[in-house]
Specification:
By secondary structure, the chain is α/β, with parallel strands linked by helices. The protein has two domains: 143 residues, 3-Layer(aba) Sandwich (Rossmann fold), CATH 3.40.50.2000; 186 residues, Rossmann fold, CATH 3.40.50.2000. The protein has 14 helices and twelve strands. The strands form two sheets. Strands 3-2-1-4-5-6 form a six-stranded parallel β-sheet, sandwiched between helices. Strands 9-8-7-10-11-12 form a six-stranded parallel β-sheet, sandwiched between helices. Helix 7 crosses helix 10 and helix 8 packs across helix 9. The longest helix has 17 residues. The radius of gyration is 21 Å and the shape is globular.
Length: 355
C-alpha cells in the first residue's frame, strides 16, 4: 500500500464529511482528535446532518460544525463548503451524498476508499482499512482512522471516542429530572442508564428482559433511568409495566442532555445503538446487547470497562432490516437474561478495580 504524499506544512483548512447517525458521529471523534493534535493550528471542521450535530456540542477537537438537513438544502451546504477553500477533505462516510459534498469542496486533496460509489471523484483512494491496519476485521473507528493514516496523520495509537459534557446540558437535565420526579438528580444515588430501544427489531432485546435486569440491579443498590426517543415511547411504557422496580423514563432529552446523563451514570445497559456509543464516549462502564449487527465493527470504542452480550448465529452479521433466515430475529431473541446478569457483574467488578 502506497501512502499519500501531502505537504501538511501548508494545510490550513481540513473538512471531515460524516453524514448519518448518532453512532457514526460519535465514532468520528477519534479521527477528529487525531487530526487536531496533528494540526493544532489548522481549522478542522466537520459536515453533519443537522439533527445529529448537537451530539458534538462543546467538543474541543473540532472548530466548526457545518450542517445539512431540514434547515439547509444540499445546494446551500455545498456552496458554503466550497467558499471555505479547504485544503484536505476526508470522506469518512462514503455514501453518494457524502461524495457529492467532498467533490463540491474543490479541495486539492479529497480522500476516500476505492470501493466508494463514484470513487473517481476522490484523488486519494485507500484500498481498505484491512490493508492499512493489516488485520482482517476492523472497527468503524479504525476504518475512519485508516483514511487519515493513509495520508500521513499519526493514528497508530487508535484514539478512543470522546464527547464533551456541557454545563448547559447538565443544568437543563437537572431541571427536567426535578420537574418530572420531584427529586434532585444528585440525590438518587448509584444509577444505571438503560436504552431499551433500537433502530430495528433485529437489534431490540425485549423490554421484559430489561425489566429483569432492572430488578437484578436493584439487588445491587442501583436505580435505573431509561431513555428513548419520542417515537420510541412504547418501549419505555413496556419496560415500566413489566416490573415493580421504580424506573425513571425520559423520551424528551436532547442529545447533549443524554451525554450529561450518561456521564453521571455508574453503568450503561442497552442495545447496540448510538446511545451506547455516547455512553462509551464519556467512559461509562457498559454492557451492550447485540443481535444482527457486526460486533467487530460496532462494539464500544472505549477504555472503560465494557462487555458485549450475544448469541452467535451463522447468518450474523446482516443488514438487520428483516430476518430473512428465520422470519423472526432469533439472534436478539436468544440472548439470555442470565448472560446479561453475568456481564453486568463482571463490568461492575472491573469498575471497582479501576484506579
Amino acid at each position: 500500500m502506497t501512502r499519500v504524499g501531502i505537504d501538511w506544512s501548508g494545510v490550513r483548512r481540513v473538512l471531515v464529511v460524516r453524514l448519518r447517525s448518532i453512532g457514526d458521529t460519535v465514532l468520528s471523534t477519534p479521527s477528529l482528535i487525531a487530526l487536531k493534535r496533528f494540526l493544532p493550528s489548522a481549522k478542522v471542521d466537520i459536515l453533519l446532518e443537522d439533527w445529529v450535530a448537537p451530539v458534538l456540542d462543546g467538543f474541543d477537537a473540532v472548530d466548526e460544525i457545518i450542517t445539512v438537513g431540514a434547515g439547509r438544502s444540499k445546494v446551500a451546504a455545498a456552496l458554503e463548503i466550497r467558499r471555505r477553500n479547504y485544503d484536505v477533505v476526508f470522506n469518512i462516510h462514503g455514501g453518494t451524498t457524502a461524495t457529492f459534498f467532498t467533490f463540491a469542496t474543490g479541495a486539492p486533496h479529497r480522500v476516500g476508499y476505492q470501493n466508494y460509489r463514484y470513487s473517481f471523484l476522490h484523488n486519494h483512494r485507500l484500498s481498505s482499512s484491512a490493508d492499512f491496519w493489516k488485520q482482517d476485521k476492523t472497527h468503524s473507528a479504525e476504518q475512519q482512522l485508516a483514511l487519515l493514516g493513509f495520508t500521513g496523520v499519526p493514528v497508530n495509537d487508535r484514539p478512543k471516542s470522546r464527547l464533551a459534557v456541557t454545563s448547559a446540558a447538565i443544568r437543563s437535565l437537572e431541571d427536567k429530572f426535578y420537574e418530572k420526579t420531584g427529586t434532585q438528580l444528585a440525590e438518587i444515588g448509584k444509577v444505571a442508564l438503560f436504552h431499551p430501544a433500537a433502530a430495528f427489531n433485529t437489534k431490540e432485546w425485549a423490554a421484559e428482559n430489561f425489566a429483569r435486569v432492572a430488578e437484578f440491579l436493584a439487588g445491587k443498590n442501583l436505580g435505573v433511568i431509561a431513555v428513548a426517543a419520542k417515537d420510541e415511547q412504547r418501549v419505555l411504557e413496556d419496560l415500566n409495566s413489566a416490573t415493580d422496580v421504580p424506573i425513571h423514563s425520559f423520551s424528551d432529552l436532547t442529545l447533549p442532555e443524554i451525554t450529561a446523563l450518561a456521564s453521571n451514570a455508574d453503568l450503561f445497559v442497552g442495545n447496540d445503538s448510538g446511545i451506547a456509543h455516547m455512553a462509551a464516549a464519556v467512559d461509562t462502564p457498559s454492557v451492550v446487547i447485540f443481535g444482527s449487527s457486526n460486533r467487530d465493527h460496532w462494539r464500544p470504542w472505549t477504555d472503560a470497562p465494557n462487555e458485549i452480550v450475544f448469541e452467535g448465529f451463522p447468518c450474523q452479521p446482516c443488514p438487520g432490516h428483516e430476518c430473512k433466515q428465520f422470519g423472526e430475529p432469533k439472534c436478539i431473541q436468544s440472548v439470555r437474561v442470565d448472560a446479561v446478569y453475568d456481564a453486568v457483574s463482571r463490568v461492575l467488578t472491573k469498575e471497582k478495580r479501576r484506579p
